[in-house]
Amino acid sequence: MAMPQKSRWSVSVPEVDIPTYLFGSPTAPLGDALAFADAEDPEALRMTWTELRLWSQRLAAGLQAAGLREGDRVVILSGNDVLFPVISIGVIMASGIYQSANPHCNARELAYQLSLTTPRFMLVSEVTLACALDAATMVGMGWERVFVFNDAPLIKDGGGDDNSKTGVKHWKHLLAPKETDFVMSLDPNLRTKELAANNSRWLCTIPLYHGLALCYFCTISIARRVPSYIMRHYEIDRMLENIQKFRITELHLVPPIIVAMTKHSVLKSGKYDISSVTKTFSCAAPLGPEPTFQYESLWPKGHMNVKQGLASTESCCNTIGWDPTLTAVAGSVGEPMPNCEIKLMDDEENEVAPGQSGEIWFRGPNIMKGYWQNNKATGEAITPDGWLRTGDVARQDENGWYYVEMIKVKGVQVWPAELEALLLDHPAVNDAAVLGVRKDDDEYPRAYVVVAPGASVSVDDIAQFVHNKVSTIKRLTGGVVFTDNIPKAPSGKILRRVIRDAIAKNSKL
Fold first, then answer.
1. For 228-278, what is each residue's pLDDT tens digit?
2. Cα–Cα dist 370/379, whole Å
3. Where are the domains of the chain?
4. Are 163 and 213 in contact, with CB atoms under 8 Å apart?
5. Which of 195, 238, 431, 504 shows the smallest number of beta carbons within 10 Å?
6. Which Pfam families is this protein grouped with (predicted)?
7. What pTM value is reported for the model?
């Protein structure tokens, strides 16, 4: 029988709060090197490490003066902004619970989140103000508790157990240090080297309200003293211009961006110089070998090696990943991260045989406490002995590397996330999940689609929409099924295991 696989590493996590971990003492010298800059206006909208701490302290003082008490929630509703790190750290410094919301949500969706978490304050941008006020009215939250910030008044006027919009509770001291300490344990002089070389630069292309970006750009980059350029929103040509302009060295991307880069004809023409990039990390969804090789081929052979991982909000965005000193195997997400253990389980909750696919169960000190005020969902996600049911299906090869299961059509791997992203581009599609269904001893992609209210569309319309945009192997030959909802964890992750069970039983989702 297979046994749980424990990580090769045990990393000591400092038992300190996040501000102390990031900055040391409140008055320790930090210097005037660049910490963050707005990619569109880097000269006017920028801050040093000293300013980052100072402005965070000012925000914390302002929140406490306004009545924030220990454990109170503060919601931020904003697109990407250079002040995002200030807000997340400032809330934590004030002993509040930082909580982000999707800036693209409507007032009713935001009101639902507010009703669950009952925040003391909302910090919103001018763009999201109207939505915030409407939502506040719906839940009886006074407008005097909604503060508008921009790039000047917030600075002058002048945690978190919760992460992202999901109401996931995390241990306060675990959010930042885990991955940083892992990398630094392999090279204890990493921060000193990066500061001395003065050549590490990151570019934020992903939404800062998402837990993944929170970990990378509001904690890890700060701990390592790596300057970051914040894009207000992703657009491929603007991203490539920024890579060239700022000589970006490390990218943290999601698979749709990687795929878009491989298909971008202008990039292949040599218009943009991306030679400064030496590292790429892919997260949030599986990335198959084919797009990995295509992406790596944008650089000279041997220059680029994509390292992808598997993570979730429930695990502080840290579950399976690659040893930074090894060359990653394309298509694999790596091995258990430090202090963690993994096992693969079948539908009867038995461990699968070596080489077989099963649901990933994960246990480690970075697992969430639970879903905010939702004991039922917490009990369904976490076993009594501390295992987190991730909902992801994977297999482990003979070398110990994990591969998140994809659809295999005629021996060719098809990436569900690519098709799901494409389906969401259809104006009549509210939500979608793509899985493989077996027939005639082969596997075929099937789309489960939630149609937008009031939309008039047929399954044939959806199939044809995809048919015209992908190669033959990726077409929805397994069919299109309309459904009322896509099974998801409270964090928003698609529960593919639940959908597979429904397929096997020929029942509705």
1. 999 999 999 999 999 999 999 999 998 889 988 998 888 878 899 999 999
2. 8
3. 5-10+237-404, 18-158, 411-505
4. no
5. 504
6. AMP-binding, AMP-binding_C
7. 0.83
At the topology level of CATH, where does 18-158 sit? Rossmann fold (3.40.50)
What is the DSSP annotation of 166-180?
A: GTEE--GGGTTHHHH
Alpha-carbon separation of residue 316 from 83, 105, 131, 175, 313 (angstroms): 22, 23, 29, 6, 5
Cα–Cα distance between 22 and 206 in angstroms, integer? 22
Sequence-separated (6 or more) residues with CB below 8 Å from residue 421: 256
Bridge-based pairing of strands 341-345 and 5-6 is: antiparallel
How far apart CA 87 and CA 82 sit, in angstroms, is: 10
Select from 210, 201, 190, 197 the least CA-distant residue to 228: 201
Q: What is the pLDDT of residues 123-152, one digit of tens each?
A: 999 999 999 999 999 999 999 999 998 754
- Nearby residues of 213 by Cβ (< 8 Å), 6 or more positions away: 204, 206, 207, 252
Q: Which two tokens stand for residue 119?
A: 């925040």
Sign of the Cα torsion 162, 312, 200, 236 reads: negative
- Nearest residue to 439 (alpha-carbon basis) of 468, 410, 465, 467: 410
Phi-psi region of 332 (alpha: psi -120 to 50; beta: other; left: phi over 0): beta
Question: How far apart (Å, rounded) are the C-alpha atoms in residues 414 and 445?
Answer: 8
Cβ within 8 Å of residue 92, ≥6 positions away: 17, 18, 19, 98, 159, 160, 172
Fold assignment, 411-505: GMP Synthetase; Chain A, domain 3 (3.30.300)
- In the chain, helix, strand, coil percent, each to 5? 35, 20, 45
- CATH topology identical between 5-10+237-404 and 18-158: yes
